[in-house]
Amino acid sequence: MDLIYSIFTVFYSQVLTKAPLLLGIVTMIGYIAMRQSADKVIAGTIKTIVGFMLLQQGASLLITTFRPILNALSTTYGLTGTILDPYAGMMATMDAMGDAYSWVGYTVLLALALNIAMVMFKRITGIRTVMLSGHIMFQQAGIFAWVIYSTMHTGMVETIVLAGILTALYWGITTNMVFKPTEELTGGAGFSIGHQQMFGCWLASKIAPYLGNKDEQVDDVEMPGWLKIFNDNVAATAIVMLLFFGGIMFSLGKEQVTTMAGSTHWLIHIFNTGMMFAVCMTMIVQGVRMFVAELTTSFQGISERLVPGAVVAVDCAAVFGFAPNAVVFGFVCGAVGMLAGVGLLIVIGSPYLIIPGFIPMFFDNAVIGVFANHFGGWRAAWKICLGSGLLQAFGGAWAVSLAGLKDGWLGMFDFVTLVPAFMQGMHFSPMFLGLIFAAALIYMFRAAKELRATEDAEKQAELASAEINDK
Predict the structure, then answer these.
(1) Res 404 pLDDT > 70
(2) Which domain holds residue 348?
(3) How far apart are CA 44 and CA 294, in angstroms?
(4) Cα 248 to chain center, whole Å?
C-alpha cells in the first residue's frame, strides 16, 4: 500500500501538474496503442516533452522580460489596485482559502475524471475534448472552489464535489465549443484549445465574419516598397515590439530605464527588449510545431483504441504557428484596449482599479486575434482584440468586486466574462448554480444530438462505400 500511495503521490504532484510530462505520457500511450516501433514511441515522447518545454521556456522568458515593464508603468503613473495575472490570482486564492486550499487538488482529480467520463459517453454528453493543460487546471479549479466556498459556505466534501462538477463542465463544454473553429483554423490538425479563453476564441470565430473579410488576412497583406519587411513574421514581430515597448519604456524616463538596464546602455536595453520578443516568439512557434505534430498523431491511437472519439485540448499557443503576424497584431490591439480600459476606470473613479498583467494581455489577445483574423481578416481582428482588451479591464474590476480577491485575479478572458457573470448570479442566490447545471445539460443534449447525427451519417457513408467496392 505504501508503494501504491508513493506512486500516486508522485504522479499527482510531479506529473499531473507538469504539462510536458503529462503530454509526453499521452503521446507514449497513443503510439503504443497504435503499435508503433519502440524507436518511434521513444522519439515521439521525447519530441513532445522537448517541444512543450521549448514553448514553456519561450513563454517564461517572455513573461520575465516584459512583466517588469508593465509593473514599472503602474508604479510610475501611481496605479495601485489588483493585478490581472493567473499566478497572482492563484496566490490570492491560496491566501483566501488558507488550509482549505488543499481541497483544490481533489477538485482537479474529480474534474479530470468527470471530463474523461464525458468523452467516454460522448453519444450522451456530446463532449469529445479532454482538457490537458497542467498547472492551468489548478488555477481554474482554485477559482471555482473559492466561489463555491465563499458564497455557499460549504464544507470539504460539498466544495470538492460542486467545484469539481463546475470545473469539469467548464473544461468539457468550452473546449468542445472551440474544437470546430480550431479544426478550421488549423486545417484539421485534430486538437482543440484548452487554456483560459476558449469562450473568447469561440465568440471571436462567430462574430468575426460580420466585422471584416476573411480574405484579408494579416499574414497575407502585401506591403508596398520597403514595408515588405513586415511580411516576414520574425522581422515584423521585432520591429512592432521595439516600437510598442520602446514607446512605453521612453515614457518611464531615462533614469528608470537605466536602472532596469543595469550595466547595459539604456538605449541598447530598449533595442534588446524589442528583439527579445521576437526570440521568445520564435521559441514558442518552434516548440509548438514539435509537440503538436507528435501529440496529434499519437492521440489518434488513444482515440481509436482507449477512448474512442477523444480530442486533446492543449495550450492556446498551439495555434500561434498558423498565423504568426496575427499573434503580434492581436496582442498590440488588445494591449491598447486594456490600457484604454484602465484609463477609463480612473476617469470614472472606479473603486476597483486593475493593473494589467502581461500574461492576460498577451496570451488572451494573441490567440483571440488568430481566430478573429482567420474568420474575419485583419479588420475583424483589430476590432475584436480592442474590445477584448476593454473587457479585460472592466470585467477584471467586476470580478474583483465580487470575488473579494484584491491581491490578484486570474484576468484571462473567460474569467473576466463568464466567471464574474456566474459569481453575480451566485451572489443573488446559490440556487443560480442549478440554472448553470440546467444550461450545461441543455448544451450537452444538443451537442450529443448533433454528434450522433454526424457519426451516423459517417457510418452510412462508409457502408455505402463498402457496398460499392464489393460490387
Answers:
(1) yes
(2) 2-470
(3) 6
(4) 26
CA distance 158 to 113: 17
Residue 318, Cβ neighbours under 10 Å: how many? 29
How far is 405 from 173, CA to CA, in rounded Å? 26
Q: Which of 238, 82, 169 is nearest to 414 (CA)?
A: 169
Cell of 281: 516568439
- Distance CA(129)–CA(328), nearest Å, equals 28
pLDDT at 362 over 80: yes
pLDDT digits (tens, 9 = 90+) for 260-312: 888 889 889 889 888 888 888 788 778 877 877 787 777 666 666 767 778 88
Residue entry with cell 489577445: 365
Rounded Cα gap, residues 1 and 390, in angstroms = 53
Residue, of 387 and 430, whose pLDDT is higher:
387
pLDDT for 230: 59
Residue 153 backbone class (left: φ over 0; alpha: ψ -120 to 50; beta: rest): left
Of 29-43, 48-62, 233-247, 416-430, give the range with the top mean pLDDT: 416-430
Those residues with Cβ within 8 angstroms of residue 382's Cβ, 6 or more apart along the chain or in another chain: 329, 333
Looking at residue 12, its amino acid is Y
**Amino acid making up residue 64:** T
Half-sphere exposure of 419 (CA within 13 A, CB side): 36
Q: Span 416-437, mean pLDDT?
A: 92
Q: What is the DSSP string of 55-123?
A: HHHHHHHHHHHHHHHHHHHHHHTT--SEEB-HHHHHHHHHHHHGGGGGHHHHHHHHHHHHHHHHHHTHH
How far the first Cα of the chain sits from its last, in Å, is 60
pTM above 0.70, yes or no: yes
* 450 to 170, 199, 456: CA distances (angstroms): 20, 20, 10
Contact 140, 167 (CB under 8 A): yes
Compute the distance between CA of residue 338 and CA of residue 391 in angstroms, rounded to an integer. 8
Q: Which residue has the cell 471530463?
A: 115
Give the total number of structural domains in the chain: 1
CA atoms within 13 A on the CB side of 111: 34
Each residue's pLDDT tens digit, 175-220: 999 999 999 999 888 899 999 999 999 999 999 999 999 888 887 7
pLDDT digits (tens, 9 = 90+) for 60-103: 887 788 778 877 877 777 767 788 888 888 888 888 888 888 88
Q: How many residues does the chain have?
A: 471
Q: Which residues pair with 82 in a beta bridge?
A: 354
Name residue 131's beta-bridge partners.
313
The CA distance from 405 to 442, in Å, is 32
Rounded-to-integer distance, Cα 451 and Cα 123, Å: 7
Q: Which residues pair with 355 in a beta bridge?
A: 83
C-alpha cell belonging to residue 361: 494581455
